[in-house]
Amino acid sequence: MQCKRSQLFSDHTDNDSDEDFEIDWVVLYDFGDTELHHAIDKYETLIRDIEAFGLETEVRRGHGTALLVLIRVPRNQLGNEVYRSRVKDWLFGIVHSRPLGDSATIVDADTPSEEMRSVFHLVTWTKEQGGAGITANLGQWENVTASFSPHAWIANTELLRKLAAKTVLGVEDLDQIKALFGEKVGFYFAFLQAYSLFLVLPAVLGTLFWIVSTPYSAIFGMTVCLWSIIFVEWWKRREIDLSIRWNVNGVGALKVNRVQYTWEKQEIDPITGEVQKMFPAHKRLLRQVYFIPFAVLASTALGGILVVTFLAEALISDVFGNNLSGFWAVQYLPIILLAVSLPYVTGTLTSIAARLSEHENHRTNDEFELAQVQKAFVLNFITSFLPMILTAYVYVPYGPKLLPHLIPDSWQSHISAKDFRVDAHRLQEEVISLSMAGQVINFGEEFVLPYVKRHLMEAHRRYKDGQEVTTLHQRMHSEYTKALLVDAPQEQSLLARLRAEATAPPYDVQEDTMEMCIQFGYLTMFGVAYPLMPLGFLINNWIELRGDFFKLINECQRPPPIRSDSIGPLVSALEFLTWLGTLSTAALVHMYSGDISQVRLSRLLLTVFLAEQAYLATKLMIHFIFDKIGSEAVRQEEATRRLIRKRYLETFSEELAGTSLPQASHTYLGSRRSAPSTSTQTQQALYPGPEVVEVECVRSEYKSEKGERFWNQRKEVTGTREAGMKLIVALKGVQKSSETSGGNDKRKWI
């Protein structure tokens, strides 16, 4: 019988595979800076390592001196890898139902992301882990500049059209995003959707307070603080619900060594006998210490830039503002330049922090991600919030005392004493400039500029490719080589997309999640200064959700479907921002709701202390309430566990009553393709649901005739190695070459 698939997979798989010729993975091999014989040798090694694991390959011309190595995993091999992954999930307690079958069992993936994850493992995992070990830009694969799975264009387009037509995404929409791109991406869009819905309340209240009240309202401030605490506590429980729904609860227990991980010694586990690759913890700790001076230097330098920019803006607007009344744009020029430059400064510092995280040599991806997110959050916190912190707690309260010391004596004779007064509205203007205007600038940098840049680069590449093809056709290549240089008519659309995807940047879901966390920090820390901030964020996020999905499918490579049961370490960042936002809101209301000159430090500290105690008490109360309410998904999960344990005990009690122990130990052994036996019926009783349907798949090796023609059309003439070598020589612009490598004459590839 034919194995069943999920509705989403069955709706799109046939069309997508027909359109994409059943291409599971793409590797971009760029040999532009490599000598001819080395380029051929490395290409041979690449193809040999891929095909050694039973994977099929085809090669096509890429942009310039690059080749597209197309990879297909045989269906039986892929189905067995999916089954092994499910068994591993059961062994680590991620799912409770043991999949039926044995080491040769073949199953269909439930979703495209499950299938793609198995392909990702087969291609990128090390040979010891069961993969081909092909990792872009690492070790011997320095010529492999990209490694990715092609986008499912039909499914992507349909889902984008569906999201654009909806005001609010349902859980089924999130299921489809997860099914296409994996749980990690699914959790980001779930977080963005939940956060946007929660913004409705402060947006409505903020608009009302903007109309009928004044900034720094104590009531609005307390509302924002309470709202932020409720949201964070609710989201932590929402993560659990989604992780149960997506069968990834506790997936962090599955830990695999990073390919980049280097070890110094091996130890044998005394219990399991497994060889463990170890790196001394004290050496990693010493490497982590390197971030401290970097953070100090970066903070000092960045703080200095911010202070200079801030003082320039303050001097122009507060001291010389009367003389520049006709040139209002000049007054805001420093802060505009700061807002435009901050994303680039943050990006540069974050890239340096990423290299530091690599140097720390973390063993697993979870450990590396934690280290990287911590560094990125510190840097984003400094660049995003330091200007407003300086404005709120230094410049506005102490500006009249500081400005006279910062202005040259020759200028002070032309400035009256009243010019040294600082307007208390300065903070609100700063908040609007850096938070609200910053959202617009980020949108342009995140969507508009990459879109324009991509189209310009594609036009330039098409022009260069056209010139190269014309030049190559004028040379005396064989007819087969000429055929390799020109795309077949039925492949032109596909190869054009793959070439564009190969040069696109990888999608970083943590970067988008970090952006939302920083926005959350703006609201919790400084939202009381500008009550319309939640409304602006709500509008921005409605566009952001659809824009991020558009960016994901059009501007970035398809990310590997990494599994996760949350948004990762940024949950802790949200809790920190909630705590700090409560203290900041209390301080701002205390300082700016009245005459700031009458503020006393002792009373301010007392206000902040009481606010912190109120925060702790409120958080404890909300945590208690949510625990009492509970979750329907958690209750069903616990009920399922109890039912499985009960059936397990009942079944084995009945079997052991009439069966000897040696016979009982073989209860679960049997043939996968035999008729359902008593033991199989027992398993179905113990483990109900789609995961335990007995597997009997009669499958064709190819899903479509087009896919079969694509992968077999050139096998009768030559293999992938020979075709790639001919392309390398042709694209290198060599008509005849007497260069040899390992005794092989390269002239035969012309």
Automatic annotation (TrEMBL):
Bilayer topology annotation: Multi-pass membrane protein
Broad class of the protein's primary localization: membrane
Domain Anoctamin transmembrane: 177-639
GO molecular function: chloride channel activity
Subcellular location: Membrane
Location of the region described as Disordered in the Swiss-Prot/TrEMBL record: 667-686
GO cellular component: cortical endoplasmic reticulum; membrane
Membrane-spanning residues: 187-212, 218-235, 289-312, 332-356, 377-396, 520-543, 570-592, 604-626
Residue ranges constituting the Anoctamin alpha-beta plait domain according to the UniProt record: 23-144
Keywords: Membrane, Transmembrane, Transmembrane helix
Polar residues bias: start-end ranges: 667-685
InterPro entries to which the protein is assigned, alphabetical: Anoctamin, Anoctamin_N_fung, Anoctamin_TM
Protein name: Plasma membrane stress response protein
